[in-house]
């Protein structure tokens, strides 16, 4: 096994016991990125010199007995919305040409304090306002979309060009690309991970979280990210915790909700079959399956767009009026549409969100988590605009990809996407686990139990 092929947990153990050096690991990841970038384009920028300097510092510290923890010396990618002092934060847009961050975001500072090594900034759909990340190609089939808007982070992890990465999630932007590229993606509870220094799309829906090879890896990264930050008004006053799940597969007594409505509607047969098979595997591990009705499904799309569109437009108000030509057409049109929405529209969406949160809270009293597809279809061909379902109805690709993920953003509940197979073309399929607020430990326990019995698929090929 080459160092770039290691999971975070495997690499961390090798670094801690000095069977591998941070410099060897970083060089391996950089060399792998050199082979994958020409056809995948996961990164907006790579700073090899900075990465090697950080790796050499980590090597000196570890050799001197100053090991900082599981992330010390581990190469990572950060979505190009996340500020790192002295580095560009382009947000995938010409609007940000020449911009360099003056200080670290909270998450970048915490990862640096834990000794993680920054390889570079990963591509995002412009200002995270999309579900495809058009600059980046799917790790398993470059002719297909990577998913978005954290597509660069997912592809970097899936291809071995980063051991882990961070993304953001406003309507599925961690979980969608994770599912389409066969990696693990975690959208934490709203407010659990501070967003100070992270470019906003929609302040009341935005989340920051990890993309990793395994559930265990996601737990290690989440442990480093959490903790209150007063600079983010939504940051929860929760103590930092260790989220690492125990290495056991027994799920006896756990109640897993299986949706009767919504999540299996208009879903590709291969996706439904893989997810239902994975649910059966949870039952075999001792979980009790309970059918549930997903509440207020007819209002999901209107509520999500009713919140996101005006909030995004408010963030971009000044630039939209002074330099609209700098935006890509798809994003500019969405931002301009936000100017047509009334205060009443926004307030009705907020009221709907409150009702939806209450309804989900009641549902989650009956079960410990819900298991469902992460996205209704695997990665579509680049440029494809619609998906036609078996009953003949059509749906736009962005609407299809966001449909199953946005409820967790509206309600703020945590959601974890785990790879559970592939379709006939070899494209990855993901299962989504949704839990109670601050119930990340339960999701990680279940996801880890599943992957202990179904080891993660290998990395995507380099070419």
From TrEMBL:
Residues 24-444 form the Amidase domain. Pfam families: Amidase. InterPro entries: Amidase, Amidase_CS, Amidase_dom, AS_sf. This is Amidase. Gene3D superfamilies: Amidase signature (AS) domain. It comes from Streptantibioticus parmotrematis. It comes from the Bacteria.
